Amino acid sequence: MTVSREVELQGHIIDSGMMQTCFGVIMDMGGSFEVEEFDIGRHEDERSYAKLLVSADDEEQLQSIVHELHQNGANPADPNDAHLEPAPADQVVPKGFYSTTNHPTEIRYDGEWIDVEDIEMDCAVVVEDGENPYAYTKVLNAVEEGDLIVTGEAGIRVSPPERPRGSEGAFGFMQGGVSSERPSETTIANIAEAIEETKSEGGKVLAVCGPALIHSGAREDLARLVREGYIDMISAGNGFAVHDIERDLYGTSLGMDTESLDHPRKGHKHHIYTISEVIREGGIEEAVESGTIESGVMYECVDNDRPFVLAGSIRDDGPLPDTITDAVEAQDAIREQAHEADMVLMLSTMLHSVAVGNCLPSTTRVVCVDINPATVTQLLDRGSAQAVGMVTDIGTFVPLLAEEVLDEE
Amino acid sequence: MTVSREVELQGHIIDSGMMQTCFGVIMDMGGSFEVEEFDIGRHEDERSYAKLLVSADDEEQLQSIVHELHQNGANPADPNDAHLEPAPADQVVPKGFYSTTNHPTEIRYDGEWIDVEDIEMDCAVVVEDGENPYAYTKVLNAVEEGDLIVTGEAGIRVSPPERPRGSEGAFGFMQGGVSSERPSETTIANIAEAIEETKSEGGKVLAVCGPALIHSGAREDLARLVREGYIDMISAGNGFAVHDIERDLYGTSLGMDTESLDHPRKGHKHHIYTISEVIREGGIEEAVESGTIESGVMYECVDNDRPFVLAGSIRDDGPLPDTITDAVEAQDAIREQAHEADMVLMLSTMLHSVAVGNCLPSTTRVVCVDINPATVTQLLDRGSAQAVGMVTDIGTFVPLLAEEVLDEE
Amino acid sequence: MTVSREVELQGHIIDSGMMQTCFGVIMDMGGSFEVEEFDIGRHEDERSYAKLLVSADDEEQLQSIVHELHQNGANPADPNDAHLEPAPADQVVPKGFYSTTNHPTEIRYDGEWIDVEDIEMDCAVVVEDGENPYAYTKVLNAVEEGDLIVTGEAGIRVSPPERPRGSEGAFGFMQGGVSSERPSETTIANIAEAIEETKSEGGKVLAVCGPALIHSGAREDLARLVREGYIDMISAGNGFAVHDIERDLYGTSLGMDTESLDHPRKGHKHHIYTISEVIREGGIEEAVESGTIESGVMYECVDNDRPFVLAGSIRDDGPLPDTITDAVEAQDAIREQAHEADMVLMLSTMLHSVAVGNCLPSTTRVVCVDINPATVTQLLDRGSAQAVGMVTDIGTFVPLLAEEVLDEE
Amino acid sequence: MTVSREVELQGHIIDSGMMQTCFGVIMDMGGSFEVEEFDIGRHEDERSYAKLLVSADDEEQLQSIVHELHQNGANPADPNDAHLEPAPADQVVPKGFYSTTNHPTEIRYDGEWIDVEDIEMDCAVVVEDGENPYAYTKVLNAVEEGDLIVTGEAGIRVSPPERPRGSEGAFGFMQGGVSSERPSETTIANIAEAIEETKSEGGKVLAVCGPALIHSGAREDLARLVREGYIDMISAGNGFAVHDIERDLYGTSLGMDTESLDHPRKGHKHHIYTISEVIREGGIEEAVESGTIESGVMYECVDNDRPFVLAGSIRDDGPLPDTITDAVEAQDAIREQAHEADMVLMLSTMLHSVAVGNCLPSTTRVVCVDINPATVTQLLDRGSAQAVGMVTDIGTFVPLLAEEVLDEE
Q: Mind listing the UniProt keywords for this protein, alphabetically (chains A, B, C, D) (predicted)?
């Protein structure tokens, strides 16, 4: 027995790769298809339309295929309303719940398409009904008994971002992702331009920072970018803040004087002493206010009201009183920052970049910089459509970026 | 003005590198020295002794040098008792507190040298006085008001492990650390022998496991090692457990069938569905008992009473009810396992390996396996004296290790 | 002024990505297009056809675009004969000569399409006219004065390989290229199957071997695969052969006993002594025949008449008398092997793999194995359509591969 | 039976690690020792002296140990003259010939110690007797019948460089080798200082250049350093020169415009066209003189009489007429440059850096820069005592270095 369903694709379905992907999905998963309608955009700025009849051996296989097509932007041709079921208990979703992508998504409710707010990957979609029904995402651990949750595949429309065309702005510059074979200075100039564009549009820039920023000597330039307002928010871990403050208190980072390179051995204990001092003061803000901390990235955040999130991890020393030690609470704080960000700079940290990336819709601009190509690749693979990667040394990148951004003022 | 202090070195101070290191420390840090006594071991199994007069320009510099010499096993020639001060508040240590190394350490109390228990890096040393005084380490966040804490440098003796000599057992095989230029099968055979040696001495083996173990197809062989009692404890994260259970529930890992490699696209949602199923059951143990989970590493842990710690992180989905989301609580659980372990296998995880490594004394045997040489190097640099590193594919390593271990029964 | 040209695409132009690529090329390069005809294959096994009118601002830009479309399989709609010009001198090609891709290529000569033989990248196409005209590739340094060389873009048809469909054989298993997130044992089993399939079809397997094969302990298993006929030819460098023979003469590789791991220091000079011994004998074959060399990969090559090419490089010690020190001569020898190969195993060598890869058409099956993901990615990017990459430890890969291949006999 | 021999160590044998290494060598290789005399330098600037009696089970083992001690600077206490034997044929050395280290070496001839000139690794030592006897190294393939070649271990003295003390000059800054955890800008400033120091001492700087220099946009700054005389010689491959010239002829590097990043696809054929143009001209110098090449690194070399060596490899396209295709000839050209260099910058090339490094004595200053930490580690391991490594992006390194060097003029 063969079962079939019609799906539709529209938009720049050829040059976005959507049509290729969908054909591939069907064949990979053992199904077959017939192109029932195909209306190709005659010019590069016209949209195309295709209707496919997808067939499979049984209903389960068909559902798997249609689910996967969904994720890639093909939608059922004869939409019904999304199916809703109440959550049976806190943190427990109904079986067969719909797990989100990070692409813009709508659901059909009462015959109307409504946007799913705060879209991010691997969430449930919750619908608040009533006069002005609306839909939004919830991570599993936030689900409450009775939440109306979308299940199944019907009545859901996903829109993977299309390939930028024509005047693509600053973010058009590195299509095709990562490469260590690009000219570094030109790429940095383009990233600087994208930051300026974001700021001039009134957008917010979030920097996700790893401790290598401090060891590699990029601290002062990063602090300037915070002070001058090119970075609006910081997402980091306990270690980043400790290294930054150690530099202020002792002039070292992990015990090395980052200016003279002198006495590489001296001061290993500075790290733990720094933590102890901040605990004694009660926190970073208190230590800035008391005059104990007088410079650096954290100092500029406090001094200029740039919000920061320090998320804890099991490798932390201390931690500082400001560090959120509970992973779920920390994710909530990260999520809030991520949703406010219009552009995200991921700077030399895998753990924190993945955590932030998990909360981003595919439409947020992302720049990922690391000296390890595997880190950059892995971050880009997770999925922003507007992500660019650069394999470089953070210790030369930040100074050159600061020069570009601040000199053009 | 010049200030001086005498320090002593004893043991195999030449071939352990201790003497070279100490000479280097003094010169790097701007001091000078005179060798006042030197009694070299005439044979390779005789111990040597040296007394150095270390000089510096001022007391602060001298203290820095002596502190650093300390960390490397040189001790003041005229020991006084360690200086103790009460902690002024919870989590607040007295200024100038002594921050530990991971080497065996004694303090001088009331004229007697007593061991510091549960030694690990970057801790305070707390002394309980009374009839039977004893000393032990506390991490900063565990310090309580009134704890008597060692400060300064006096009355502390550190013993970095010496180079193994003569019959070095299985762990002699890879002195000189990591290399990707060693024969893989022979190295694996040596690691297998070290595991057997540890077990035959009644020791406990802790495996620190990253999710790549599951993707790479090593799950079944790792599960066998747990079942057969060669691995006594598991330390991992939420992701490892989810991937392991996903394989049981859906036959996939991150959506790919790990046996047939079929349908690489199907089943991306299996990951989040797995979490949802375990939450529904109430936890891993409950899901094993109800028959929902029937195989795998976590299954064998539950079925054979092998304790596991799942430490949360900000990149987790879910998480599972078993995952300890608070970083400080998770560190405590990790610390307990680490102190019980006689041998630690660090398998394809940076984050969890660092967290476990932070809690280990330098005398614990450590094997670190990763396909990224930077990960192996970084882990070994942190400091076990008995650590060996291997740069290899975890997906071929575990099967070959299991073959070696289980075939020799 | 706008200039235009018609180009045609045919085949599985959507799911092969050809159409997407061509749309992207035109837009990236500042041109525009109109789809004049589009006939989509209704089923997954029907071919499609598209005719595009490509426009650009001037003739130069149009030519650039059409050139690039060409490389990706789009051909001028109104083919003329290819334009031929004689080479003005040895090694000198006419201006505007056509530089080849590695895809199957035809040229139009006297109104007929004829295949270009021995296709490989970055060559000139030479046409021998006469009664039975034929076309073939020549690298620049082989061009002779008077050779008739194809210039311009007209009369050339390139066919990039299509995505495999349906029964894809053993090589379907790893579409999507490299990943370190695949199950290792299953992937190795698939590679074994592909070797067996190649052999059972009467094909030849070429192994490109780096010295890490020997250090990592894979020598004996590789030698078995040569002896048993699963590897027909070896392409390597001087270092590989020296290490292999050192193991035979001294039991060491770079001075380390690869079985006992004993005495890692002893025998550094074995490397240079090995070279000296082989020079004394006059060459590898002579040293095998005299009984000096009694085992190993080179021994099996000589003993079983498997041809080998040892290509010299500037980092060689010695070199051995068998090593071809001239790069151009060595390339010619590599080219001959490459053209005979039906499947190529690239094992832990960047330099030799690139050299061999440069001579392969995109239709040859390639497996690339290295522990460095960057090496695997770079090799696959160069372009075989049937290439699969595996990031693993060569020292565990070869033994497991040999087990798979030889146990299934 | 036990056999013994006395060896002596002198110099800063403790803090250079020599004594530790020698103790380790003896124990690793199964021997034993007695310290017969030990006279320690009392101050940090006094030299020490030790005489060891080394024992082993048999003569062969003893010789192996003494050989290895030799390589590390311990010399027989009762020196005889070196043993000399004539080479039996061209390229054939006597059995048991002495294979060199890269450390300063003397041989005892007729009761006198004479320096071995042009020391480099893995060579034979040839002695010209006569009135003014002298000794020098020859690589195996340069040995001629009748050359008097040193065999055995007697009469040879090796001096591994000692750890720098006190005022160490610019090259003291990065003892301890590579690290990606150093501040990048400060490290670059130190390298700039070392270049200036070398130049002010009348020394010569050799830059070993990989093609990534061009792709990454560092070409113009490198060309300035050549023009301004901070780089005296270039050692590179065919690819480097082609990419450099392509940028001049077509404004692209591997087809990408390195300034605008525009049209990443356009111009893949520029690479092969560039080669063709230079061949047409007859070579790089001719193409500069005819005005075809007007800028870039190769241009500045020709224009400013900075000698360059382009060594061929099997992955070359073309090659250019200037490329030395024979590996042995190329090595000779590299050797000549290497012996003239006082400082070597190894910039993003493994193959050429190893080739140059093979010809360097351990006393030459080496800076090795690469974005891949494995490359840096491997190059430093091969052995210059004055080598420093930096893991960074060559595309940001060269501009920042040029700024440092040229701004301080």
A: Lyase, NAD, Nucleotide-binding
